[in-house]
UniProtKB/TrEMBL annotation:
Molecular-function GO terms, alphabetical: peptidyl-prolyl cis-trans isomerase activity
Compartments, record wording: Cytoplasm
UniProt EC number: 5.2.1.8
InterPro entries according to UniProt: FKBP4/5/8-like, TPR-like_helical_dom_sf, TPR_2, TPR_rpt
A cellular component annotation (GO) from this entry: cytoplasm
Originating species: Chlorella variabilis (Green alga)
Keyword Secreted: no
Name of the molecule in the record: peptidylprolyl isomerase
TPR repeat positions: 209-242
Amino acid sequence: MFAGEQGKGLEASFKEFLKRPENAAILEKQQHKEARQALQLQEKMRALEFRDKVLEAEYEAQKNIAPFLENRVLRRIVQTFTNDPSGDFSKWANNPRVVEMLREAKRLMDGGFLNEDDVETFMIRQLDDPAHEAHEDFKRKTRRVARLPTEQLVGALNEHLTERRQGNEAYRSRNYTKALHHYERAKAVVEFVEGLSRADQAEVEVNKVAVYLNLAAVHMATQEYGGAVGYCDKALELDPANTKALLRRSRAHTGRHDYEAAAADLARLRQLDPLSPEAAEQQAALERTRQADRRKEQAVFGHMFERSQVAAAGAAGAS
């Protein structure tokens, strides 16, 4: 960066400047700026790649997508066709199901039935349905990531941490709607970025696990146990030995009355941490909930039996 003895002195002074606490805000602002610039550059590169793919495609494919390129949302969806691993843009542009969905979306927009935000949701819901034949391809090919060098990655992760801190404050205040908003913004950052080195990517994944657990906690607090299980699943895919995720998922399974799954998570947790006090507490909570369910079932069956006896006695008296 700097040359010669004078340069070494300047470099040392610059490093000292960066370490000063009062300059942290300036440094973080610069890191955010560099991260945004890197993302903007990647967007420009994608646009150029998209243009080249369209020009290289066969005439029929170009004709199929032409009506949709003037619409910002539809153009972005068409742009994902370039993510095909084999580079076969025409395969998607000539797919009758895909083209028909684009036509239907355009028709609804032109008629004023959907706005740009609605149409994206409309199409994604169709393709995001696991029953849809193009679901897996859509899920894989539309994943957008930015591979950032360390300095820019730090800026992006700092932005994610700011959102998580705000989410934590809202969570502690029991404002779960606000907490969810900030955690989802944090998730959007960590799911969008990738590190160039193995160490940087490991740091991204550590932060992914943390934000997934934050989201699981919010869903637990609002008794949306299915959502909590889903986010714990995501955390455990990245870190199978994460005891916090196992404990939280066990609690979520208990909330759903899925006691076998809850017990399985506790068994795995005990293997990893035999002395865990949280595991013992959750085991007791699991047993209490299971017994309460059994008592409710017995009461229901008892009432049903009593009613059947009364009905039988009435029938016998009438005869």
